[in-house]
């Protein structure tokens, strides 16, 4: 099993030279995943990958139930994100990383983000807003993949809309709306109650971060592709 610092260096190699030290959120997230991986070193990364997808999809049901159940949806989304990072930590730190596993993990990440968008939708966010949230989760990694096919081997600096940010936005947005449902607040606007407004606001903030993060990445890739 690699040490934490060795794991972070290896993670950087697998992610186009991205330095996790550039973002406290990303570095902290990866460090947490490594801490969880150490006692679970014998667990197959594929098991963690599958569990992460199942847990993400399981969040849709409590999101649809609404009210205080939204707290459970937020917890499940946060757990799915940890499982996703855990599989990478198990593979890389345990010396079991492979190109096949890397591609599979990326595909599962995109599927879990579909689950996050669906959770926002069934919880009360407008369909177009939820779809935009999901699309902006996909777009940065799609751009990186296409740039890689064009010969760009470095993904650039960490943006504000990396995988941990997406997970945190979905988890805190839905979980926070669940907390709002427990508070005796009578707020209505545009035909929506306080919980729906909270869910929609979280999805909107996520979209804003997605636009900013994609713009940051676009500038970096434009420079790389111009070389």
UniProtKB/TrEMBL annotation:
One Gene Ontology term from the biological process aspect of the record: phospholipid biosynthetic process
Keyword Transferase on entry: yes
This protein's UniProt keywords: Membrane, Transferase, Transmembrane, Transmembrane helix
Gene Ontology CC terms, in alphabetical order: membrane
GO molecular function, one term: CDP-diacylglycerol-glycerol-3-phosphate 3-phosphatidyltransferase activity
Any one Pfam family match given in the protein's UniProt record, by short name: CDP-OH_P_transf
Membrane-traversing stretches: 114-139, 167-185, 197-219
Enzyme class per UniProt: transferase
Protein name, UniProt field: CDP-diacylglycerol--glycerol-3-phosphate 3-phosphatidyltransferase
